[in-house]
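Board work, copied verbatim: V-type ATP synthase subunit D
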Amino acid sequence: MANVLGVKPTRMELSALKSTHALASRGHKLLKDKQDELMRHFIDLIRKNNELREQVEAELSEALQSFVIAKSLMSDNFIEEIAAISGQKIDLSINLKNIMSVNVPQMDFNLEDDIDDEPLRYGYLNSNAELDEALDGLRKILPKLLKLVEIEKTCQLLADEIEKTRRRVNALEYRMIPDTQETINYISMKLEENERASITRMMKVKDL
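↓ predict structure ↓
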C-alpha cells in the first residue's frame, strides 16, 4: 500500500516530487530492461552449462569405470606412482568480459601439447588397457572441465546481479514510485483546497 511521504504540501515540494517520480520511472524502465537482458543471457548460459555438464559427467563416468576395473587388477603402489607423474602443463589467462555492466571471466586455457596427440607419460609394461583408457579419457575431458568452470562462474555472477537488479526494480515499483505518486496526489489536493479557500476568502472580503 502506498504511503504519503513526510513533506510539506508546497508547490516547490510538488515540483521536486514530480521530477523524482519521472526519474524513478525512467530508472525503473532501464533496470527492468537490464533484468530482462540479464535473464536472457543467463538462460542461454544455463542451457550450455547443462549440455556441457551432461557430456562431462557421461565421459567421467566412463573413464572412472575403466579406472575402477584397472585398479582392481593392479597394485596400489603402481597406481600411486602413476598419480605422482607430472601432468600436462596448462597456462591460464583470465580476461574480463562485460555483460550488461557485469564483469565475468573469460578464461583462455593453453595446453602444453596437443591433448589428442600427446602420449601417456608412463610405461606400458605394468599397466593394462583399462588404465590406459581411463587416463586417456580423463585427459581428454580436461578442456571441457575448464570450459565448464568458466560457464558456471559466469552463471553465478549473473545470478547475483539478477537478484540485485530484481530487488531494485521491486523497490522502485512497489515502494518509491507508488509513494511518490501518492504524495504528489496528496499535495495537489492540498494546494487545490488552499486555492479554493483563498478564493472563498477573497470573495467574502469583496462582499464586505
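The helical segments are 11-73, 76-84, 129-207.
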